[in-house]
Write a structure and sequence with these properties.
This protein has 432 residues and is an alpha/beta fold. The protein has a domain at 286-413. 27% of the residues lie in helices and 26% in strands. The protein has helices at 60-74, 106-121, 215-227, 250-273, 275-278, 340-348, 371-376, 379-383, 390-409, 425-428; strands at 2-9, 29-30, 35-42, 47-53, 81-85, 127-128, 130-137, 141-143, 145-147, 153-155, 173-180, 187-194, 210-211, 230-235, 241-243, 285-295, 316-326, 329-333, 337-338, 354-358, 367-368. Strands 5-4-3-1-6 form a five-stranded mixed β-sheet, with helices on one face. A hairpin with a 2-residue loop joins strand 17 and strand 18 (329-333). Helix 1 packs parallel to helix 2 (106-121), helix 3 crosses helix 4 and helix 6 (340-348) runs parallel beside helix 9 (390-409). It is globular.
């Protein structure tokens, strides 16, 4: 496999409105820069491009425009270009609000498009590499929904006194995809994937008015400065996941990023020392887009106060699941703020050895949770635009697409895969 990559600074000007909390939050300083990081992988037959942006989210129309333009540059299908947003709340307003359409920073978006297209055109220095993966559990997040015994949900950021009782499901997987120079055996590129809202650096007062990539930026900086490898961070299913030290300022942001960075270096060492388990020889890349339709909740249907213009005038919405695979690792791109419970369902129903969620990848369609969230209520449930069964449709679409992609990439495995996969584990894990 060969790879090429870019890193482009995308910070807005100081004075730009910040996207995360309210319409009147205007940036007064910059804590650190925002970046767009991109990795292009070519297996000799197919080529894919994964882009991660330090932004809160992007509208579907903008994402489709970038995919179309970048795919033309790379001569790939549009499905082979994936954008994902880390969801930092300390960046510009880049998603449409129903009641405040004037807030969308269109001048910024126009400049962003030009930067991404120029960076994609510059992907010419491809390097031969070996590809490995790793996965571990890291206790850096928590579920922000406290659900009482009578199944009523409380939004813990607004009721911090109930935090000691909040024990909801948390996806603590730190997923890593690593690319190495095959001759020098040095790391070239690392992708980290973890599920937590980038809300560590935000804090009361001026601390909430700073431009910042939050802990994903600290993670990248730590990995890059210590390994010499380039680095990308992709947010997982963080809809109801927050840092264990949320909204506590710059030190909380840096320390969380460093702790995840240390775990990444642990994974790099483990993967290199156990190549039979983690190396993916002759890894192929692949992509797919699966469309699915979900009915809109009654209070959202044709309601300009609740729904952006793109979805008005209809009773349902057509959304997309997008897949990008590197060997036995698959990124599942979702259309908004997927909650961890549904993200875990996608992981459980995947035929790939590891599946990582790519947050806000195909659109920004607000929060998406399982049916019982609408029974229990709470912030995420009140913001969910599709009906209770929509979560099942999303998981089913992702699962079907992953099976079809796997079968197209590895037809020699046959229809029995993965039914007979466990029979060969002794050959994959020789020490167990």
């Amino acid at each position: 496999m060969k790879i090429a990559w870019f890193k482009v600074e995308i910070s807005p000007e100081i004075g730009a409105r910040l996207a995360g909390y309210g319409p009147d939050d205007v940036s007064v300083m910059k804590m650190d820069d925002l970046f767009a990081t991109g990795l292009c992988a070519d297996d000799g037959e197919n080529r894919v491009l994964l882009i991660s942006l330090d932004l809160i989210g992007l509208d579907g129309w903008f994402i489709r425009d970038i995919r179309k333009s970048c795919s033309a540059i790379l001569n790939t299908p549009e499905s082979a270009v994936m954008l994902s947003c880390t969801h930092t709340h300390e960046g510009p307003q880049t998603r449409s609000h129903a009641s405040r359409p004037e807030e969308l920073h269109r001048t910024y978006l126009a400049a962003l498009k030009e930067k991404l297209l120029a960076a994609t055109r510059g992907l010419t220095d491809f390097r031969e590499c070996e590809v490995s993966f790793f996965s571990c559990q890291r206790d850096e997040n928590r579920n922000r929904r406290y659900v009482s015994g009578d199944n009523h949900a409380t939004f813990t950021p607004h009721r911090r006194e109930v935090l000691p009782m909040a024990d909801g499901f948390a996806d603590k997987e730190l997923g890593l995809l690593m690319f190495y120079d095959p001759e020098k055996r040095l790391p070239l590129y690392l992708i980290g994937n973890y599920a937590a809202h980038p809300l560590a650096a935000h804090c009361p007062g001026l601390g909430g008015l700073r431009i910042s990539a939050d802990y994903p930026g600290a993670f990248r900086n730590y990995v890059e400065s210590n390994t010499g490898a380039a680095c990308m961070f992709v947010s997982g299913a963080a809809g109801d996941m927050i840092p264990r030290e949320d909204e506590l300022g710059d030190e909380a942001s840096r320390s969380m990023g460093i702790r995840l960075g240390k775990s990444a270096m642990f994974g790099m060492m483990e993967a290199r020392r156990n190549p039979l388990r983690y190396l993916m020889p002759s890894a192929k890349v692949g992509s797919a887009i699966r469309k699915f339709t979900v009915p809109l909740r009654t209070k959202y249907r044709n309601n300009p106060k609740r729904l952006p213009e793109e979805y008005l005038g209809r009773d349902d919405a057509e959304l997309e699941i997008q897949l990008l695979s590197f060997g036995d690792v698959c990124f599942a791109g979702v259309p908004g703020e997927l909650c961890a419970e549904l993200g875990q369902e996608i992981k459980w129903h995947s035929p790939f050895r590891r599946t990582f969620i790519a947050y806000n990848a195909t659109a920004y369609f607000s929060y998406m949770g399982p049916a019982n969230f609408l029974v229990a209520g709470g912030y995420e449930a009140s913001s969910q635009r599709f009906t209770a069964r929509g979560g099942l449709k999303l998981v089913q679409a992702a699962s079907d697409a992953m099976f079809e992609l796997r079968e197209s990439l590895y037809p020699s495995e046959g229809e029995a895969y993965p039914d007979n996969c466990s029979d060969s584990l002794v050959n994959i894990l020789p020490n167990r």
